[in-house]
Amino acid sequence: MRRYLPSLSALHAFEAAARFMNFTKAADDLGLTQSGISRQIRNLEEFLGVTLFHRSGPRLVLTEVGATYYRDLALALDKLQEISIDAVRGRSVDSSLMIGTHHTLASRWLPARLGSFIAGHPEIPIEVSPALPTTDFDTTRFDITILRGAGTWLHTRSIELFAEKLAVVASPGLIAAGERLDPLDFAKFPMLQNASRPSLWLHWLRVAGLSYNGRIQGNRFAHNDMLINAAVHGIGIAVIPICYIERELASGELHMPFGEAVRSGDSYYAVYPERKSHQPSVILFRDWLIRQTRKYERIATADE
């Protein structure tokens, strides 16, 4: 008996359009034209006999049926991708612990500690990928994430790990190591900007309790890894979360001439979908994270 299934192309087009809420972006993502996306979705709506989008000029809004269909479809496409990858590599994606976190945390803070989890649980293969605070935990493939925020994500359980602390850092080639300056002297030096968090200088001023009315400008870098490298090479001073620069601070490649780090008001949380809260590997990794961050907090407090 033939299955009642629309074409895979139509499903891909709808999933991309619902994910971006924009036909043009969906077309770019799939390498199609905007008219091609529109045609595929029209065919899908005719096949199902339901309306998936309300169209109001350039704006798209999912209908109630469309929103439910998108949520279930995203899970189904993820599963289809998983079994396809399984066939290629010879083991199930379900056997891996899927970990998501911010790009720089994944490349700096986490690898410095992850070896102990791998050594303690060699039976649990892990996969680490970038994750955003806007992750949809209803449909995500991640088993557990480490995210910065205020602790509020829908359909999740979250546990605070450690507070984010910000510092203005410099290379000893730009400001001599050990030199202590008035915090407001930062304006005398070239400043580096973080394009992914453009208000970070203003935020640092506020949480540090400083009043400054001058201009804040400087060369911009797309993300923290680039910003850190620029600061290490003496291009300028930068506001950076100190959890990203443990190695550079310990080695003396960077130092904090304008005072100690201050709390930003955000924290890093272990966040995992409610539907995966009883998964043994999630519980193991969550508890390991809590132990690791308690050690990190004790060391960080001792250094202050």
UniProtKB/TrEMBL annotation:
Entry keyword set: DNA-binding, Transcription, Transcription regulation
Coiled coil ranges (UniProt) are none
Which SUPFAM superfamilies does this one have? Periplasmic binding protein-like II, Winged helix' DNA-binding domain
Which PROSITE patterns has this protein been placed in?
HTH_LYSR
Question: Which stretch is the leader sequence?
Answer: none
Q: Where is the HTH lysR-type domain?
A: 6-63
Q: Which family does it belong to?
A: Belongs to the LysR transcriptional regulatory family.
Record's protein name: LysR family transcriptional regulator
- Record the organism: Azospirillum endophyticum
